Amino acid sequence: MSVLKSYRQGIKEAASQPKMIFVLWLANFILGSIIFYLFYGAFSRALGNSAVAEGLLRKFDFNFLVEFLTYHQESIATIFSSVFVLILIDFLVSTFLFGGILFTLTLRLKSSDPESEKRRFAPIFFQGAGKFFGRFFRLLVYSLLLWISSLILYLLLNLFINIFAGLDAGELVFFYSLWFRLAIALFIFFLVRMILDYTRIKIAVEDSPKVFRSLLEMIKFVFKKLGKTLALYYLLLLTGVVFFAIFWALKLTIPQESFMTIVIAFLVGQLFIASQAWLRIAFQQAQLVFYSPVHQELPESSPQEYKNEGLQS
Amino acid sequence: MKKSIILAFFSLFALGHACLAALSQHIVDYRIKAKLLPEEKAVSGQETLTWLNDSDQPVSELQFHLYLNAFKDSSSTFMKESGGAHRGFKADKQDRGYVAITKLLDASGTDLIRTLEYIHPDDWNKDDQTVVRVRLPKPVPPHKKITLHIEFYSKLPKVFARSGFYKNFFMVSQWFPKIGVLWNGKWNCHQYHLNSEFFADFGVYEVELTVPEEHVVGATGKRIKEVKNNDKTKTYTYYQEDIHDFAWTACPDFVEYKERFSLDTPPVDTEMILLIHRSHLNQKERYLSSLKNGIEFYSQNYGAYPYPTITLVDPPFFGSGAGGMEYPTLFTSMAISFIPKGLRFPELVTIHEFGHGYWYGIVGSNEFEEAWLDEGINSYSEVKAMARYYGKESSVLDFIGLKVSDFDFQRAQVINSGRMDPVVKNSWEYFSNGSYNLNAYSKAAVTLLTLENYLGEEVMSRVMKTYFERWKFRHPTSKDFIQVAEEASGQDLGWFFDQFLYSPDKLDYAIGSIRSLPLEETEDKFYLDERERAEKKSQSKEAGKKEKMFRNEVVVVRKGELFFPQEILVEFEQGEKILEKWDGKERWKRFVYLRPYKLLSAHLDPKNKVLLDANFKNNSILAKRNRLSSLKYALKLMFSFQNFLSFGSF
After folding, report:
1. pLDDT at site B525
2. What average pLDDT does the segment B572-589 reach?
3. How far apart are the C-alpha atoms of B619 and A50, rounded to whole Å?
């Protein structure tokens, strides 16, 4: 399927999944709430009844920041260790949710009655989440190999760049090379993420238990269709950038100096987070659609449960 | 006879004129011929030094600084103290630096080289070779001069701790055998330390510099001659009086810009010379405008800039270990070609280093023993200059909505300090490099800003002008500064300086508590009988109908060891405001007010004058807590974390 068609289908399908968007947003919100609770407590303790709080409402106060960092190091240490734990939890939650997203989307792609799954969202979503969690977790572990190889590749590329744009090349060349190095790092980062996306899609579509093999096959697949897979991925990324620009412009218009404006800014922020959840689904759907034509014979090769679940409506 | 009388008259006139024109007492007179050896990364030199024994005692030995020997090997005091690192730069073991005296003769031609002896006045490190003693065959009588001829070879290190080379860039500083200061009858000639800069006597420098002709040269003083040689070199001669050091730089990649700067009041006329590295040409205007601001600010606030030139050197990025350093009439700044305008680092460094020309260059402070007299006073001046030209709240940073002032940065260091040292201390004896920096620079600056708020801007201006005027071209001590401050302000400031210059302790006041207790006329006093009690009860009921009274209490506490007079602004519900004064000496004080209304807030130091206070946050209490700020920033951070997780989940 063409890149644009996959992109359009991805966007469209994601928009028709409000419950899925809600689940993704909710998981993110719950983890974020813990951070809110910790920071709110720390700031409240730090500020007490001080009049500094009133000034802070109007503008950022560097002196308060320094005093907070100096005199409330225990709170900061607690927050940082909590952040670390929450990130680990998020890894597991995301891995769990990926199963639900892909199972639901794959099912809808194969089903002749797309409305059927909508009525039974939760059982299908969480069944898929549970079903693929083990495999996707293994993929997470195997992906370390990919990440480490990518890091080595990046370091080698850096050594190569150093030959032409190292410290001896002069300031301008060196600074341009920093941007170039950053671009390469991002490119490799997104490439690995894309490979992992396709691997998860393959595992879900084929209900394959062979995780490592799927990973190797998808590396081959991505490099075979590198131009198209990249084009689709970056088109979706660009959509995210557009959302970000809109959000930023909107945010600038909200002065957070009263309870109402703080709440409004918060709601706008949550809408932006929800839009990211939507985009995450769009990523999966678009790539799923792009990958599917390669497996036209899916219904036959896929397990019976897909057909059964699809027909249960 | 007549001819000789006329000649004598003219000679006397010339001498008198010279004496009148001299701004300082010329203790030293250096005539140096130096040649840059680019291949060897070295300088060979010949130095004729005439030194005046200004003491009342005969002097039988001379002491010299050989600063470059700090980089000779890892056993020098500098290297031991620094671990081979300075300002984030590591010393290159392949390219060490050193200075070797190859010939030392007195005026009669007597070879003195065998009398040379390395000494270690500060730490007994026998491996340190940064100070050398010369025993003289016969003492220099009081108020007489001695002339020495010295030949030396200075190998420059790869740029490290202010000096050295990077490729074809050369920053040649602390490079020649330099005589110490005979001060109060003793040699003041300290070893080169990590935490210290320099100290030297005023005098005259005439220096001939021979460099490859493609090099662009900048140096202390005014260029008075330029000769092209047959061997593809050029010789530049620089001359300057009333200075106490000489530094120079050479690099073919420098682009030179010259511009005159003049002021009517006070009268200033000087030539600004900018030597900017090719890769930073887009920073030219930032450098020149901040240099103009610096000259204007220091001239107007302390005294007219007295020299005919000021040279600003912009080193290449990878030679920036030489950046951010001052020498008489020449200093190095720092920039990168991509630095956004809102990050005012080039401006800050330029104004700071130019300012050193005042508090180290013109006022000859002893940076070994009382570094704050230069670093601290200059940081104070820099905070004020940056605020004047770049905005009080955003003088250093005004970038993507974030505004931070120079003062904010200085204070951040002070409140983060471990309080291990006082401000006044021998530089090399501070607990750590961090302690030296925060005390000599930041705490001293915040101390002077607090003093200014205490005395008032006008009085402080008088203090600074008097200090500069009285001690320019001389060597002051902390006591001299204190004396001037007391004299110019007409106040005994011993309590202030004793605490803030000589104690490492903390200043922190807080509003301990505020409360408004409703007052009730009590009817059950033990001495009342039943009838009286009932009567009282009915009276209090009637009174309650009229007006309810509150006992409003404000408790202020001194949490730190140091004291400072305080003002407390107390605000009530009905708009009443009371400004209380407290000498701040006790550990706490309670203010009580009987009012028919409650307290609204109490603010200690409401005009934010006591900048040394270690915690601004506890300087106020509101009766009604404001939780919106906590909500706002906690939600912001929550949102950032949500974005982080969301991005990670894609």
Report:
1. 61
2. 96
3. 7
Contacts of A201 by beta carbon, 8 Å cutoff, 6+ apart: A102, A106, A284, A287, A288, A291
Calpha distance B495→B514 (Å, rounded) = 30
* Positive or negative: CA dihedral B461, B467, B472, B477: negative
| Nearest-CA distance A239 → chain B (Å) | 13
Helices (H), B307-456: 345-356, 375-390, 406-415, 433-437, 444-455
**Structural contact between residues A47 and A6, judged by C-beta atoms closer than 8 angstroms:** no
Query: Tokens 């063409």 correspond to what residue?
Result: A2
Other beta carbons within 10 angstroms of residue B158's beta carbon come to 22
Q: Which residues of chain A have pLDDT under 70?
A: 1, 112-119, 166-168, 293-313
Same CATH fold assignment for domains B25-252 and B509-629: yes
Domain residue spans of chain B: 25-252, 509-629
Nearest chain B residue to A258 by CA distance is B628
A32 vs B contacts (CB less than 8 Å)? 638-639, 641-642, 645
What are the distances in angstroms from CA B175 to CA A23, B178, B328, B487?
70, 8, 14, 40
Dihedral sign computed on CA atoms, order B106, B108, B111, B115: negative
- 8 Å CB contact of B617 and A47: yes
Per the CB < 8 Å rule, is A94 touching B626?
Answer: no
Confidence check on the interface: ipTM exceeds 0.85, yes or no: yes
Q: Which residues of B touch A50 (CB under 8 A)?
A: 617-622
Q: CB within 8 A of A246, min separation 6: which ones?
A: none
Q: Which pLDDT tens digit goes with each residue over A157-183?
A: 999 988 887 666 778 888 889 999 999
Residues 398-427 of B with CB under 8 A from A: 401-405, 408, 411-412, 415-416
Asked if A170 lies within 8 A of B279 by C-beta distance, the reply is yes
CATH number for the domain whose boundaries are B25-252? 2.60.40.1730
Least CA distance to A38: which residue of chain B? B634
How close, in Å, is residue B279 to chain A by CA atoms?
7
SS3 content of chain A, % helix, strand, coil (to 5): 90, 0, 10
Which value, in Å, is the radius of gyration of the alpha carbons in chain B? 31
Residue of B nearest to A67 (CA): B615
Chain B residue at shortest CA distance from A175: B338
Tens-digit pLDDT profile for residues B209-238: 999 999 999 999 999 999 999 999 999 999
Considering only CB atoms, which chain B residues are within 8 Å of A167?
A: 318
Task: Pick A40's closest partner by Cβ from B617, B631, B646.
Answer: B631
Burial of B243 (0-12, 13-18, 19+ CB in 10 A): buried
What single-letter amino acid sits at B302?
A: Y
B334 vs B312: CA distance, rounded Å = 10
Kindly report the nearest CA distance between residue A220 and chain B, in angstroms: 21
Chain A residues in contact with B316 (beta carbon < 8 A) = 171
Q: How far apart are CA A271 and CA B116, in angstroms?
A: 79
What is the Cα–Cα distance from B619 to B508, expressed in whole angstroms? Answer: 9
Please tell me the predicted confidence (pLDDT) of residue B629: 94
At B166-194, the pLDDT tens digits run 999 999 999 999 999 999 999 999 999 99
Match domain B509-629 to its CATH number in 2.60.40, 2.40.10, 1.10.1760, 1.20.120.
Answer: 2.60.40
Q: Do A39 and B337 touch (CB under 8 A)?
A: no
Please give the single-letter amino acid code of residue A114: P
B360: pLDDT strictly greater than 80:
yes
**C-beta atoms of A67 and B617 within 8 A:** yes
Residues of A in Cβ contact (< 8 Å) with B641: 31-32, 35, 83, 86
Report the C-alpha gap between B183 and B638 in whole angstroms: 62
Q: How far B611 CA sits from the closest chain A CA (Å)?
A: 11
